[in-house]
Amino acid sequence: MASTSGPTSDPCSPKPVVTYFGEIHLLSAVVQKKLQTRLKSLQLSSLSSLPKEEQIQGFSDVCDGVEFIELQKLPESQGQYPRPLHKRPALHTFWTECWKHETYTSITRPRIQKWLQGLEKGGVTECAIVYCITAEVRAKRQRTFSNFATTSHVMEDMKNDFKGNELLLLRLVSSEESRVLDSLLAFCSQVSSLCRAKFQKDIEVEAELVAGRRNAACEPKELYGIFLQKLNLAVSYEMTLQNEEALLLYQEAATDLESAVSIICGSQTPPTWLRALQEAQCDSWDYPKLAWHNLAWKYLPAIQTCSSPLLHTHTYLLTRIAHLHFTLERAWTVSDLVISTLHAMARQKRALKLPLPDGSFDCWAYMACNETVLAIMSRVNPDTLVDSTTSLLLVRAQLWHYALEKLHYIGGLCGLMPGNKAIEQNTSLIHTLINGISPVPFEVSSKEMVEDQGRKLRDILISKDSFKQAYLMLGEMVIGAFKHAGRRRMAFRVGTKMAKFHRDLGMMPEAEELLSDICRFLLRGSVAGAVCPFLRPPGRLPEEPPPRGPVSSSVRAYNTFLYQFVKK
């Protein structure tokens, strides 16, 4: 499994925003030159013929970790919630290749001045002018017998006219290819550095606002706004790799949302945001994909506009918090996180009467538990595995047990349990549940040798036979994990349920063998087990009620259960 630490270039992940204005066609020249430098064997046609959106995306790829947006198309804040911190521009840029002094004084300089005046009205002070030296400019200079002094004169005028603003030189043509590459790398580094500095200032200002609202009284209608404020700040911290701060804010946001829903859900006049959460239609119940944590970013825009179903909100929060725990090498805490999230979602589902199809939450919980086990196992330090084997087994047992209970409920709901007859309603429900499980995109999953829990559950629900095999395998894993962790009573409890499942399938010898095994394990090492005649020989179960005598009450109770089990 790929490491989950460090920044990524996933297109869904948020990045600092840089706006551009001026001679926009220069962006295609930047992209083309960058690709030709990196891949000299690749023959590229001019990118100026491509749609503008593709040119912009290509330039964003050149400057890793930055999202470029045309200034005139910068979206306005929608609804009652402000624009997220990471969507506010971190840097504004003006692009030009002007090389003639007359053109600069008559056209370019007035355009830059007008651009700056518009930004100053919005309170913007961080700006940069990007001066490009392209092949076209060089050719024009040669045709007009101009020399480099003309270009230098224009650059000096820009520095003097716009003091206080950064002037970035971007050389896209030179007799030496290395100079072009150095110029491109230096430019990308400058843009990233300016973005980080401005973005960090914005984070510090936002952090002070969040700290000031922690203990302040607020109206119910303001609670979701406070939740979003903490969430957006957590996203910004994560973008800048301040993982401890991001983890704290994500946890606070999750706690605030749960508390707000619990307190207000019984109100006669719930606020608008709570009604929106109640009425949000959920047509997919994708599990928290911890192996592909960047896929969770797709839920963020809907959360920020209060149009996301609660199930998706919990999926996003769980994925981000778990990813940060893994990054900080705290894999052990993820198990408790998942269980508490499942309980919180179940409570909110009942309290708000969410419009979720029957079994959808159980599918989500089943996949989340199995995914968490795989994620934890892949990140456990081998050096500490020997010392913590019991704890690790218990973590796996608890998560697998929760998954087994959910699978049992899904099987009963869909008519897949032994003895249930397939009816039209069951078939329709299975179809609904399968359609709500989106498999991991192939272009993502093909790069990782990780099991996709969505595809696995879809295969399980296809037929009774596949469900039976999956249920038996998971039950055996749960019993084994509890036994090795020393949890005898839990092993016995799960074992009796699995024995009943065997019995309902008509597999009576297997049921008797399983019951004998778990009873011997439960009473192992006790005096009572030594005097119990009904547990020997292996596989032999009582055919008559246990007699009264010098046998402990616990042994008599277990043997009574065995007798009743056989007689059913």
TrEMBL record:
Gene Ontology CC terms, in alphabetical order: cytosol; TRAPPII protein complex
InterPro entries assigned: TRAPPC10/Trs130 (IPR045126), TRAPPC10/Trs130_N (IPR056913)
Protein's organism: Geodia barretti (Barrett's horny sponge)
Name listed for the protein in its UniProt record: Trafficking protein particle complex subunit 10
Pfam families for the chain: TRAPPC10_1st
Lineage, broadest ranks: Eukaryota, Metazoa, Porifera, Demospongiae, Heteroscleromorpha
Domain TRAPPC10/Trs130 N-terminal: 15-334
Biological process (GO), any one: intra-Golgi vesicle-mediated transport
